[in-house]
Amino acid sequence: MEVKVVRNLLEANERIAQENKEMFANEGIYVVNLMSAPGAGKTSLIEKTVEALKDRWQIGIIEGDIATAIDAERIMSHGIPVVQINTGSACHLDGNMIRDALGEIPLSSLDLLIVENVGNLVCPAEFNVGEDDKAMILSTPEGSDKPVKYPLMFQESSVLVINKIDLLPYIDCDINAMKNNAKKVNPKLEILEISCKTEEGLDKWFAWLNKKIEQKTAQKR
Amino acid sequence: MEVKVVRNLLEANERIAQENKEMFANEGIYVVNLMSAPGAGKTSLIEKTVEALKDRWQIGIIEGDIATAIDAERIMSHGIPVVQINTGSACHLDGNMIRDALGEIPLSSLDLLIVENVGNLVCPAEFNVGEDDKAMILSTPEGSDKPVKYPLMFQESSVLVINKIDLLPYIDCDINAMKNNAKKVNPKLEILEISCKTEEGLDKWFAWLNKKIEQKTAQKR
């Protein structure tokens, strides 16, 4: 009974996520669902991305948090449209929440929509929202064993961004073991090493994203 | 309908948690449910605790992880009884999982049982397992805004252990803001600052725990 209810929930979400996906396809918007544990650097990476790409692309952001509008306020200072979703107690975003938020954003003008999920290395990976790609961040202080201990998110993601590489001299994190563990659970996973603080490696993330946006928006130009 | 199912699940869990709690009371065992985001240092703190307290108290550990027995193997090397629960995909431990694990542990000889929850700053806080106290770790690289963004766990916990204070010189974390935010969501929260790496502040955690164990085990001595 309980298992059936969970399956029904996931199926209902999948239907709405698919409708979102069709809407994004019709508008030629590339959508990335950005996930990580709390404090890995999702909002910082979004801020850097907005600054680097906002002259080339029209960008919108959906912020998911259990409580507060702290992240939306950080993003808003960069002068692009942002919607804050407060999930109350829900530990992830789902297709329905995204559909409701879309009315608050000038959708047809966008090239790139970044959805910042709730900080959680487990549950967000189970719920599609209609995105083209799931991208995830793992920060070096979280440790190299996380891909094998929390495999689903690594399996569902197209790209893994390893953040806070500037801290490597001060912590016990074997970044090669981290990458090997990630490849073990998802051999196709693309892996980028960055530091939002020093900006090292960000150019590779921007290049990855630019290519994705070019492919998706080509049809509307 | 959906809400009712969730409420039924929580109520069923609460009943089992209560049965666990009575069993722990009868045996005079102090039980702490240790929670945090992934990589904040739960297993490291348990290892330090076992080394410091195992000559004084009989200690058992229940390890909760979605996958792998990495943490149980780390604990086992310290020569105390440990049970690994692999939740498969579940993002938290519940009363039923703990009840099932108790059969694998020499319960009546124990003074202290530490339950290491799944690494997740959201869901574990909703499910009692029969513990005397919930304790949580927040590590400095996660950032000072986490108590207000993920309030439930801070509200449910008796003590907050701030770990990785050795990294403060290298990161943008205002530890006073972190503590103020924690007190804002839970004015009664006890806060300890530690580094598992340098062992700074661990004595305060051991003192907190010793006092709790003395109170709980007094009845059986």
Instruction: Tell me the quaternary state.
Output: homodimer
Which radius of gyration of chain A do the C-alpha atoms yield? 17 Å
How would the global form of chain A be characterised? Answer: globular
The CATH topology of chain A corresponds to Rossmann fold
User: What's the end-to-end separation of chain A, in Å?
Assistant: 49 Å
Average predicted confidence as pLDDT of chain A: 95
List key phrases describing it.
221 residues; Rossmann fold; 7-stranded parallel sheet; homodimer; alpha/beta; 7 strands
What this model shows, in words?
Two copies of one chain form a homodimer. Chain A has 221 residues and is α/β, with parallel strands linked by helices. Chain A has a single domain (2-216), classed as Rossmann fold, CATH 3.40.50. Helix content of chain A is 41%, strand content 18%. Chain A contains eight helices and seven strands; from the N terminus they run αβαβαβαββααβαβα. A seven-stranded parallel beta sheet of chain A has the order 3-2-4-1-5-6-7, with helices on both faces. In chain A, strand 2, helix 3 and strand 3 form a beta-alpha-beta unit. The mean pLDDT of chain A is 95.
